[in-house]
Design goal:
Largest sheet: 3 strands, mixed
Number of helices: 6
CATH superfamily: L-arginine/glycine Amidinotransferase, Chain A
Structural class: alpha/beta
Shape: globular
Strand order of the largest sheet: 2-1-15
CATH topology: L-arginine/glycine Amidinotransferase, Chain A
Bound molecules: citrulline
Distance between the termini: 8 Å
Order of helices and strands: EHEEEHEEEHEEEHEEEHEHE
Length: about 250
Amino acid sequence: FDFDSAIVRVPAPSVVNGLSASGGEMPSYEGVLAEHRAYVAALEAAGVVVDVLPALDAYPDAIFVEDPAFVLPEGAILLRPGAPTRMGEVAEIEPALKRHFDEVLTLPDGFADGGDILITPAEILIGLSARTDLAGAEAFVAQVERLGRRARIVDTPPGTLHFKTASSLLTEDCVVATPALAATGVFAGLDVLVTPEGEEAAANLLRVNDTVLVGTAYPRIADLIAERGLNVIVLDVSEIAKIDAGLSCMSLRW
Ligand code: CIR
């Protein structure tokens, strides 16, 4: 979570048609824009230089730049998103990655979304989900090894969009996770701060340097994190939550 750079993408008006598993109320464009602006400001306040890419109206979910690519300080990997409407986002983000990274690798086959990939100090976890299949996860493991890092394929609890919908790295030795994901034992060797009942969606929070970005709707987890001496910034994510997104999805960080 020591980052000095990030990539984000301005929401397009089409964001109101983003993918939503719940099929409930859709967000308003103005609402998403406001949440996105506050998010970029919070990243900057945490010490990150943010490269803001232009809106892409052809891809309603393109503001969730975390999914079509994976980045480390050592290099980037263009992924293959599991939702057919999102595959075109890969070619759109490629020029930005080539501007920032000497090494930009690709996935030869399968499907993998960046939202399924969690970086911990010891290893990188990639969760199998409705968006990430075994072929994609195995291809990811092979490519990340070329960047000098080790990755492990794990399961995502049923009904969870992405592995990171249910988990985030909080400190060097602690992750935040939903009860369902914590119960799988996948985080053996790490401390797990389990989300309080009713605040499961808070698990997709974002640690950036000494700051933790947390949704405004999750005061109990925000208090638990503040008690650990971390600087908490609360951000409204109620509009993007309507299209199944949280705080990690809106940036690539390194
Ligand atoms: C999707 O279903 O692909 C978007 N509506 C939400 C993506 C959220 N991304 C993420 O958690 N990394």
